[in-house]
Predict the structure.
Amino acid sequence: MKDAVIVAAVRTAVGKAPNGTLRGTRPDELAAAVIAEVLKRAPALSPSEIDDVILGCAMPEGEQGLNVARIASLRAGVPVSASAVTINRFCASGLQAIAFAAERIMGGFASAILAGGAFAAFLSTASGLTISVAGVIDQDFLARTIGRRAGGDVPRIRTFRLAAVVAVVVPYAASWLAVNTSLADTVGLAFAVAASTFCPLLVLGVWWRRLSVAGATAGLVTGGVLALTATTITVLGGPGSVGGGWLGALLAQPAAWTVPTAFLVAVLVSYATPGSVPVGTSRTMVRLHAPEDLRAADPPARTD
């Protein structure tokens, strides 16, 4: 197996929206500048030797949509003979692109690959998120409710359009009530809600065989309610609305206490409801964590 090495690495400066100097620069332009520079720093590597260009993009839409890797590579002067692909693994997109490139080189399927990430959050549009949210609202609520009341004669396109209006109008109306919260704080609060709900469920569900259905539900609901309450207070009034000190700090960083609380509730309720532990949990745990070559020993033969 071949060794994969990084011969040159380049990145752009980190821009801060909405006042950063790079706020008007397109992601494909930034990526093209990086690709051109990394080729300069590896003079022994000819652009014609590039087999592929792999770029990760967390939100491939708008200016960074289509195949942004192909667009950026051509703008940087990479020959048209080199292929290009854009991948998406959200926050790990750029890291996954490098991993894919290393795997191909180690496997002998390529000799030189340009890999990295290209993402500008300040230029990403909300259309993709709107369509995703509208699809959930339509499928899980509007289509069933309206279809049941109308006898199932309402075309799905109409309920989807209504769901899209709801997905746009509700956040827009809420934005008028919110204080001026920075993008970094908003992302942090969103991750706090996600961590408070799914983290206890995933960790305990994978590693603790005594987790019950009631415990998992209680932990998820508790973490979600606490995190959403803290987030609502922070967004609508700001942590300063309840004073400074510990209370304001805890509201601004809810994950520090909502995640442990959700874990504790899930564990306590699981101990109190052992009857709701799913059947076959122990066997599933063995399949998850035992080595693949482990085989159960054959039962001893009976002798009469």
